[in-house]
Design brief:
4 helices; Hypothetical upf0131 protein ytfp; globular; alpha+beta; single chain
């Protein structure tokens, strides 16, 4: 199955530790969405926004990896699954159930996300923009 990471799961070390079968394929952009941070966890989330882009990493994951991600993402309480198509392929990602107000992420979490941006060679402008919300 194909999975789109846009937050802490971009971090290759963390993703491999959590999902042993996962393989990073390439970086892609999710169009008409923007990145934000919210909830008591101050975690990454995406929300619909026309003409905006969320850069992320495309991973191949196994069924057991998906189950581990479900636990990590507190599915279906904190995050729900969201599916989109990219060049005809169905891709799964997570989006928060409750769209609470922006909360600046913790330094520790943000450093994990930044490392993930480096790992996936992503343009950090969307991240910088999300932090100025």
């Amino acid at each position: 199955m194909l999975y789109f990471a846009y937050g802490s799961n971009l971090n290759h070390f963390q993703m491999k530790r959590r999902c042993k079968d996962s393989m990073f394929i390439k970086k892609i952009n999710l169009r008409d969405f923007r990145l934000t941070f919210r909830s008591k966890y101050r975690a990454a989330d995406i929300e619909f926004k026309k003409n905006s882009i969320v850069p992320g990493g495309l991973f191949e994951i196994s069924k057991s990896d998906e189950k581990k991600l479900d636990v990590y993402e507190d599915f279906p309480i904190l995050y729900k699954k969201f599916y989109f198509h990219y060049y005809g392929k169905k891709i799964m990602t997570y989006t928060m159930v409750k769209k609470s107000a922006f909360r600046y992420p913790t330094e520790r979490y943000l450093n994990i996300v930044k490392r993930g941006y480096k790992d996936c060679k992503l343009d950090t402008s969307a991240l910088t923009k999300a932090l100025k919300t």
